[in-house]
Amino acid sequence: MLQGPYGLDRDKPLFRLPFTVFSVATVFLALGGLVSCILISLIYHFEESTATHCEVPNYLPSISASISQTPERYIWRVCIGLHSAPRFLVALAYFNFYRGRFAKRWAEWLLSCLNLAFALGENLGLLLLTYVSSNETYDVHKSGFIVFIACALVHMAITCRLWQVIKKYSFSPEEKTSYLWKKWLFGFSIASCLFAAYFYKRHNNYCDPGVYTIFAFFEYLVVLSNIAFHITAYWDFGSKEVMVATPPEDKRF
């Protein structure tokens, strides 16, 4: 990723792309895959994807159910596979960004290291739940989902803390907008998780008709708020570019 003016001692770049386009395209791979899988499940696999253990009426598939059928599982795996490498790159880009901002602040520097660890854990958990579906090895899929959600929430919390510090010393309207959206989306994600957990437990305990549908709806909101949180990179790296180029030393004989 380009952090400043392009150096004149390099060849013409092999590839360059505005970071805003790169980051938005990355998260929309996950969004497109999710929406496609849910719609295909509702249209072609409604009975299988909305079935519950207690056989009460249900009108929405959970995310796990919607990515377990064919061809949904392959659509989801392709989308997440394509978007995983850029997500790791974005995590490293944020780490370098925080390292530059907090070089002399040890508390925030340590938080930056933790933030990178939880960002990587979030991506690894997502890959695990993606490539091990719930109807193949349920316990592994469940573990992947728990790792994904837990790491995502901690990553959001640490990010909000770091941006709270950045906001105090920044006069950039883009950074202030980014912080406000991050804070709001983190709160929304926490609320959605709590509602989803409540309705999931209520469904398992009482098997009320339609309760699993409400759980599925809040589960969608959890994932959508996570996707939206990552779109805030649009403001954080608006002037940067992703670039592939050949350094001069590689051309020497």
UniProtKB/TrEMBL annotation:
Name of protein: Acyltransferase PGAP2
UniProt keyword Transmembrane present: yes
Pfam families, alphabetized: Frag1 (PF10277)
GO cellular component, one term: Golgi membrane
Entry's family note: Belongs to the PGAP2 family.
An example Gene Ontology biological process: GPI anchor biosynthetic process
Domain CWH43-like N-terminal: 19-239
Coiled-coil ranges per UniProt: none
Keyword Transmembrane carried by entry: yes
Lineage: Eukaryota, Metazoa, Chordata, Craniata, Vertebrata
Membrane topology per record: Multi-pass membrane protein
